[in-house]
From TrEMBL:
Transmembrane segments: 12-30
Lineage, top ranks: Bacteria, Pseudomonadati, Pseudomonadota, Gammaproteobacteria, Lysobacterales
Organism: Stenotrophomonas tumulicola
Compartments in which it is found: Cell inner membrane
Source superkingdom: Bacteria
Family (UniProt): Belongs to the GSP H family.
Keywords assigned: Cell inner membrane, Cell membrane, Membrane, Methylation, Transmembrane, Transmembrane helix
Name of the protein in its database record: Type II secretion system protein H
General secretion pathway GspH domain segment(s): 43-160
GO annotation terms (biological process): protein secretion by the type II secretion system
SUPFAM superfamilies for the chain: Pili subunits
Gene Ontology cellular component list: plasma membrane; type II protein secretion system complex
Length: 170
C-alpha cells in the first residue's frame, strides 16, 4: 500500500480562509502606505518639473515656466491636481504664448484634490530666479488623508529654490 502525499480539500480551504483573514487585517494599513507613496511620487515629479523649468530658463537665456494644465497645450488647469506642463519662454514675457515649446506634460492625478487660491503659473527668468516678487506655494492634497501627514506644500522662493513641507491635511 502506497501513501499519497498532498493536500486535502479541507486543508486547502482552511489555508485560504486564514490568508483571507490576514489580508483583511493588513489592507487598511497598506492603503495608508499606498497613499503616502502616491504623494511622494507626485511631489517628486512636480519638483523635477520645477527643476526642468528653472534649468531651461537659464539655458535658453529668456526664461521658462510651469503651469497647471489639463491637456498640455495651454495653461488652462483649474488646480495643480489636474496636471501641469513645462514650457520654454522664447519671448521672455513670463507667460505661455502660442508657439512656445512645451518641454514636458504630466497628466492629472485622480487621487488628488485641487487647492484653490494658489498661483497656477510659476515662471523663471534667465538667471533661474522666480519672476514673482514673493515666494509661491503649491499644495498637493490627497482625496483621503486619514490621520497621516500626507499634505505636501512646495514653496518656490524668489531665488528659485524649491522646498518641500510635509503637513497634516487641512
Amino acid at each position: 500500500m502506497r501513501r499519497i502525499n498532498g493536500f486535502t480539500l479541507l486543508e486547502l480551504m482552511v489555508t485560504v480562509a486564514v490568508l483571507a483573514i490576514l489580508a483583511a487585517i493588513a489592507f487598511p494599513s497598506f492603503q495608508g502606505t499606498l497613499r503616502s507613496n502616491r504623494m511622494a511620487t507626485t511631489s517628486n515629479e512636480l519638483i523635477a518639473a520645477l527643476s526642468l523649468a528653472r534649468s531651461e530658463a537659464v539655458k535658453n537665456t529668456r526664461g521658462a515656466g510651469i503651469c497647471a494644465s489639463s491637456a498640455g497645450t495651454s495653461c488652462d488647469g483649474p488646480t495643480w491636481s489636474g496636471g501641469w506642463m513645462v514650457w520654454g519662454d522664447t519671448n521672455g514675457n513670463g507667460a505661455f504664448d502660442a508657439g512656445e515649446p512645451v518641454l514636458r506634460f504630466a497628466e492629472g492625478r485622480p487621487a488628488l484634490e485641487g487647492v484653490s487660491g494658489q498661483d497656477l503659473t510659476i515662471a523663471f527668468d534667465a538667471r533661474g530666479r522666480n519672476r514673482a516678487a514673493a515666494a509661491q506655494d503649491i499644495t498637493l492634497l490627497p482625496d483621503e488623508c486619514g490621520n497621516q501627514d500626507l499634505q505636501r506644500r512646495l514653496t518656490i522662493s524668489p531665488t528659485g529654490q524649491v522646498r518641500l513641507h510635509k503637513e497634516k491635511c487641512a
